[in-house]
Specification:
single chain, mainly alpha, five-stranded antiparallel beta sheet, 29 helices, 5 strands
Length: 567
């Protein structure tokens, strides 16, 4: 794709993609927007399924995008990406406003401080020798200040190897953060986090300066020193886990970047050693070392070595349950790299109970256009004990496979099934496209909607069927029976001006019935909105008749009279 400015995103997206993305973003569908690496943003979009979106940017331009959904695979763009781009632009704008506000506040403070005895004024005038002596003496009696001083200036200490000095720094930080019982409180976590933030900042600086050994030493020490104390943390553990993920991300950059081959071999040996340590395994972090090894497995010898290590790990059942699925996926990726089709098929047969692995098997079969295998794995998934939401996910995949393989005999029943349980009109429209007998299809769907569909979507779905198949007499009766003013407003466009009198008794019944059962300002405002709707759609006669009847029936309702007066 051609890079474009994030600020001008709407100019580079098709209108449908933009509108869909805007709706999802405004509806809160974008979750967990995070900068996992410098200029690489990842988010989860919960709309029409759950999909992970990645956005690669420069400081101001969008360089590349990706999404897990089928629309992106087919068109190279989708509403999920649109939603994340809009959310990212809003976040960037918010950060810019914050920076400008802070800058302005700093300028105000600087102006106010010109004639005051400020710290800056004292530091500018203090003799360097006396200032150094004061800092040394103060640090001896204030551990937190001493720790902050060590953390800030560790890189300047050349007499000690970087691995050793970061080890000493973190040992001191952990000691300062512990309580008398050797546990770590939330306050202790906050103290420790300040040091870790400084170490991480320095490690990132080393990376961009090309000092890769120092990056490995700093990040490695963070993992080795912080992981064993996680079980000692009373509150705030998740804050420390964030730093550990960032440390792994730095090591991943080393694995993927331009570090010398000798250092990458050293990193491979380091990850091999650390991956077997019990304290990583107990925290489900051993899998992250295996993922690092996968990135470093650039030749057949290493791939074979890693595959055996992963298989042994799985066979011994030493991996925590929450990390086992990641290990299985890693094994699959290694098998795919080796291209052993027989072992891949055997692997899938053995792991049919893992949803993510089944999804991977389906995606692989689709990529290879092996429709028989794709349908087999989807049917395997559908045979398992699924929630209603999970079942819809598998059925959507089945429909996509049927469309891709032009299996028309499968499209109709799948489209009907998805419509019945989701109520989304696009599935019913697709079902109608597959048949010449719309009456038979609509009759069957209506019957199943009454018996099987979720209550939350049933009324809307029934109205959709009657509307799409032009069964207007039945639709009119259904709208009256539904007792829903929203449905009536949505579908009353089917009746032209000459048929307006058919609608008035229904509007009258529903409006007056609603007022009978509801009181208060909110009720009055809803009724006003309905009257406004009738005026806006050219039904002023109906609106005026309703207003007249409401005034006669409920003159004592002051809020209702006030709302009617301002129409």
């Amino acid at each position: 794709m051609t890079p474009f400015k994030l600020q001008d995103v709407e100019r580079h997206l098709e209108e449908a993609v933009w509108l869909e993305g805007e709706d999802w973003q405004l509806g809160g569908a974008v979750k967990g927007l995070t900068e996992v690496e410098r200029h690489l943003w990842v988010a989860r979009v919960e709309a029409d399924g759950k999909y992970e979106v990645e956005i690669q940017i420069t400081p101001s331009k969008v360089k590349s995008v990706s999404c897990e959904c089928s629309t992106f695979r087919e068109n190279g763009m989708c509403g999920h990406i649109g939603a994340v781009l809009i959310e990212l632009r809003a976040l960037m704008a918010h950060r810019k406003r914050e920076r400008e506000a802070k800058k302005k506040a700093a300028e105000v403070r600087k102006s106010e401080n010109k004639r005051r005895l400020t710290l800056d004024a004292v530091l500018e005038e203090a003799p360097p020798g006396e200032l150094l002596a004061f800092i040394r003496e103060y640090a001896r009696h204030h551990r937190q200040f001493s720790l902050a001083l060590k953390a800030r200036f560790t890189p300047q200490v050349d007499q000690i190897q970087s691995r050793e000095k970061y080890g000493q720094l973190l040992n001191t930080a952990i000691s300062v953060s512990r309580k008398a019982n050797r546990r770590i409180s939330l306050r202790g976590v906050q103290k420790l986090a300040k040091v870790l933030e400084e170490v991480l900042f320095q490690a990132e600086g080393y990376f961009y300066a090309g000092h890769y050994q120092e990056v490995m030493d700093a990040a490695g020490m963070m993992l080795e020193k912080i992981t064993p104390i996680l079980n000692k943390v009373d509150r705030g553990r998740e804050k420390l886990e964030v730093f550990l993920r960032q440390a792994f991300a730095l090591l991943g950059k080393l694995a993927d970047g331009d570090a010398p081959p000798a250092l990458k071999r050293k990193l491979w040996d380091y990850a091999l050693d650390e991956s077997g340590k019990l304290f990583y395994r107990n925290q489900s972090m051993d899998v992250q070392f295996f993922q690092l090894l996968y990135r470093l497995a650039v030749d057949d010898e290493r791939k074979t070595q890693l595959l055996k290590l992963v298989e042994d790990h799985l066979e011994m059942k030493v991996t925590q349950p929450e990390a086992e699925e990641e290990m299985l996926l890693l094994k699959l990726r290694l098998l795919e790299k080796k291209g052993d089709q027989q072992k891949i098929n055997q692997f899938f047969k053995e792991q049919i109970g893992q949803p993510r692995l089944l999804k991977r098997a389906i995606d692989r079969a689709r990529k290879m256009k092996d429709w028989t295998a794709a349908r087999h794995w989807i049917n395997t998934a559908l045979e398992q004990d699924n929630s209603a939401e999970d079942r819809q996910v598998w059925q959507k995949l089945a429909l996509e496979v049927a469309q891709e393989s032009d299996a028309k005999q499968d499209i109709l029943p799948l489209a009907m099934e998805l419509f019945i349980y989701s109520g989304q009109p696009r599935y019913f429209d697709l079902a109608l496209e597959q048949t010449e007998d719309s009456t038979q299809v609509s009759d069957e769907v209506l019957q199943r909607l009454v018996l099987e569909s979720p209550r939350a979507t049933r009324q809307e779905a029934i109205a959709t069927v009657l509307s799409r198949t032009n069964r207007l007499d039945e639709l009119l009766k259904f709208l009256e029976h539904s007792q829903s003013l929203l449905l009536l407003q949505k579908y009353d466009h089917h009746w032209q001006k000459k048929d307006q009198e058919k609608l008035f008794p229904i509007y009258r019944k529903l409006v007056m019935g609603y007022l009978k059962d509801h009181l208060g300002r909110i009720t009055s405002q809803k009724i006003k909105n309905i009257i406004d709707f009738l005026y806006q759609t050219g039904r002023s006669s109906m609106a005026e008749r309703l207003i007249e009847e409401m005034r006669k029936t409920y003159p004592e309702r002051h809020s209702l009279m006030e709302e009617l007066d301002i129409i």
